[in-house]
């Protein structure tokens, strides 16, 4: 960090999405002018309009835009920005970029290049922390330039003891990480982790480390200034994870009492002082069930989950970052803090939980968050925004605060339930399910929570929602047709040539097909949904709002439509209904046994050839999306009839990758 006693006049935010909006908000409160940068894909993103100025970086891929330090510095020079805030991700932990800022006499809002570099390698970081007296786990390095010799790996594993964690030495976010419980899995795990790490971070070095079973992920927020002061602001619990990435965070942790908090704080401050740390940083620990904790890494930046610390301490961490970056000492309120109340944050992702948390993309036709007491929303998207395949699919963070953990959880759950999201599939229902689940509510959690709890079982849908929302969608469509129809004078409303014949519409809701039969009569609407014959009294109906009493309960149903998809929101929850055409286009039918891309992405490898005999579960095609690999496997025993893609191809969600004919009739089961 460049130390200066001059306040920052103009701040360039070298990031995108919700964190860019978050930084702009505080900068505006401090009367600091702001500059945004944006790629082609982010041209209409909300944060661009929120900044005072913006600079376009041509291209879409991060490597061509947000990871180009030279372009970021050129944008700062062009706009007269005297400081750059990197946010998190992208260039935030790039020591070379931090040094380039210093060389250009631009303030880098973060720690020194030396501090960042020393934490860039998890291996060197562990050595430094051990020397500082911070507890660490034993481990062995597998260098990117060396062959992964099976004998050497087995010997190393024997020294460490199973289970073992294979982990990328550079970078994080769960990429390049595998848990190995048996030596027969070791070589494949190391090879896959190295490949993934090389793709994500440009370096395939990994290390083996003892895996702590049933651990909690506990991290401590530290803050330092250029005057030698380093403090901690308490811990955060980040144990609810999927694919090694956090989805729910909270402060304080239910597993940390005041004595343990002090012990964690001392270790974190020792880590910060060893680095001569300046600015916001996070020391991450893995904590065993007995309360023993071990160093994981130092994130030399602001964390995604920083709002929970802000809410329980009352400190604006971005404001503190900007003050420290300008050479000021830490504000006095940061010197002695203790948590007040409880805060819980959930990360709302565009992803398909049922398909293994595959990232989703598309247009957000509607994204509306409720305004509720004790709830904060940090969002990077709005209605009409496009969720791109090039960036992390997090839509927003929803944070609840209360005097108790239960109050905070209830506030977040209500906010999620009342959020309207149309256009992309999300993890919203899973988050609500976790917040309601008994183990979570009791604080009995660890990083294996989503291995013990089937995500699909945590999603508890209101039993009446499916049929009731199908009825509401049908009534909204009826209202739309009535608005668009020219009525012949003299005919009563609802008159048809065949008054006794029901109107029929079919919807696909997830894996379920629902058929609605309905007919408007003088005394109401006659409806049948499967075996259910509800009593329906329609009080009013418009294409976007239905007020109806169904089986004696009156509700308002908000309805939106995009093409053949109907979105219904009510007190029962939210439902997406795909209307099934009565006369499907034959050209849209797929060949039996077709393997479809579950998400947009790039083909990394094709593992088989046409004519190969395969077994159920055989890897057919490996895709990469958002730096994560996903393997598409054979749905049955059979023969590979067609390979429709090759390595390097870009594919869209639903695109045919291959066709596997079944053993009997050519159909894949």
TrEMBL record:
It catalyses: N(6)-biotinyl-L-lysyl-[protein] + hydrogencarbonate + ATP = N(6)-carboxybiotinyl-L-lysyl-[protein] + ADP + phosphate + H(+). GO terms for molecular function: ATP binding; biotin carboxylase activity; metal ion binding. CDD domains: biotinyl_domain (cd06850). Its EC number is 6.3.4.14. The keyword Iron-sulfur does not apply. Residues 7-455 form the Biotin carboxylation domain. Residues 126-326 form the ATP-grasp domain. Component of a biotin-dependent acyl-CoA carboxylase complex. This subunit catalyzes the ATP-dependent carboxylation of the biotin carried by the biotin carboxyl carrier (BCC) domain, resulting in the formation of carboxyl biotin. When associated with the beta1 subunit AccD1, is involved in branched amino-acid catabolism with methylcrotonyl coenzyme A as the substrate. PANTHER family: BIOTIN CARBOXYLASE, CARBOXYLASE:PYRUVATE/ACETYL-COA/PROPIONYL-COA CARBOXYLASE. This is Biotin-dependent 3-methylcrotonyl-coenzyme A carboxylase alpha1 subunit. It comes from Mycolicibacterium fortuitum subsp. acetamidolyticum.
């Amino acid at each position: 960090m460049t130390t200066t006693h001059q306040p920052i006049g103009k701040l360039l935010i070298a990031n995108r999405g919700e964190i860019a909006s978050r930084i702009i908000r505080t900068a505006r409160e401090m009367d600091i002018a702001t500059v945004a940068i944006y790629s082609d894909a982010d041209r209409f993103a909300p944060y661009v309009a929120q900044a005072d100025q913006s600079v376009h970086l041509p291209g879409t891929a991060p490597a061509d835009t947000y990871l180009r330090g030279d372009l970021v510095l050129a944008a700062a020079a062009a706009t007269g920005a005297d400081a750059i805030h990197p946010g998190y991700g992208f260039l935030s932990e790039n020591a070379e970029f931090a040094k380039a800022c210093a060389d250009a006499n631009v303030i880098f809002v973060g720690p020194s290049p030396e501090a960042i570099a020393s934490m860039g390698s998890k291996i060197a970081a562990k050595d430094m922390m051990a020397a500082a007296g911070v507890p660490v786990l034993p481990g062995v390095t597998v260098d990117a330039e060396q062959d992964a010799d099976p004998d050497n790996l087995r010997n190393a594993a024997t020294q460490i003891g199973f289970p073992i964690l294979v982990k990328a030495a550079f970078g994080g976010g769960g990429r390049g990480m595998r848990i190995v419980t048996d030596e027969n899995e070791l070589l494949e795990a190391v090879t896959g982790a190295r490949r993934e790490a090389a793709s994500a971070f440009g370096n395939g070095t990994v290390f083996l480390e003892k895996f702590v079973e049933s651990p909690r992920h506990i991290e401590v927020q530290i803050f330092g200034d250029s005057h030698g002061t380093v403090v901690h602001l308490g811990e955060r619990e980040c144990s609810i994870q999927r694919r090694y990435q956090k989805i729910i965070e909270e402060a304080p942790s239910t597993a940390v009492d005041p004595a343990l908090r002090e012990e964690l704080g001392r270790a974190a401050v020792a880590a910060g002082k060893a680095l001569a740390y300046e600015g916001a940083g996070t020391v991450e620990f893995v904590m065993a069930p007995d309360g023993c904790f071990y160093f994981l890494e130092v994130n030399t930046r602001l964390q995604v989950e920083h709002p929970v610390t802000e809410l329980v301490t009352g400190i604006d961490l971005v404001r503190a970052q900007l003050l420290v970056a300008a050479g000021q000492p830490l504000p006095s309120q940061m010197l002695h803090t203790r948590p007040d109340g409880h805060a819980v944050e959930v990360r709302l992702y565009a992803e398909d939980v049922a398909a293994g948390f595959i990232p989703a993309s598309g247009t957000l036709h509607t994204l509306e968050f409720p305004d509720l007491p004790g709830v904060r929303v940090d969002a990077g998207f709005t209605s009409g925004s496009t969720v791109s395949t090039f960036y992390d699919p997090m839509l927003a963070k929803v944070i609840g605060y209360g005097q108790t953990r239960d109050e905070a959880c209830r506030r977040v759950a209500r906010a999620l339930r009342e959020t309207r999201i149309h256009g992309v599939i999300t993890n919203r229902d899973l988050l609500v399910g976790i917040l309601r689940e008994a183990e979570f509510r009791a604080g009995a959690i660890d990083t294996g929570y989503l291995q013990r709890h089937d995500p699909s079982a945590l999603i508890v849908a209101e039993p009446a929602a499916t049929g009731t929302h199908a009825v509401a969608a049908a009534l909204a469509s009826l209202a739309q047709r009535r608005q668009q129809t020219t009525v012949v004078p003299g005919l009563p409303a609802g008159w048809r040539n065949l008054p006794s014949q029901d109107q029929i519409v079919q919807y696909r809701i997830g894996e379920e097909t629902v058929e609605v039969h309905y007919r408007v009569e003088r005394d109401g609407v006659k409806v049948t949904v499967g075996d259910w014959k509800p009593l329906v009294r329609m009080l009013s109906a418009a294409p976007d709002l239905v007020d109806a009493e169904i089986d004696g309960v009156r509700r308002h149903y908000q309805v939106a439509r995009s093409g053949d998809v109907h979105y219904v929101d009510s007190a029962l929850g939210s439902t997406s209904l795909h209307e099934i055409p009565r006369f499907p286009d034959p050209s849209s039918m797929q060949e039996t046994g077709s393997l479809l891309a579950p998400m947009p992405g790039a083909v990394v490898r094709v593992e088989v050839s046409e004519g190969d005999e395969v077994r159920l579960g055989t890897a057919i095609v490996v895709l990469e999306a958002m730096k994560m690999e996903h393997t598409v496997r054979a749905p049955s025993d059979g023969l590979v009839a067609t390979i429709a893609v090759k390595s390097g191809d870009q594919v869209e969600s639903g695109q045919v990758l291959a066709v596997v004919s079944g053993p009997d009739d050519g159909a894949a089961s």
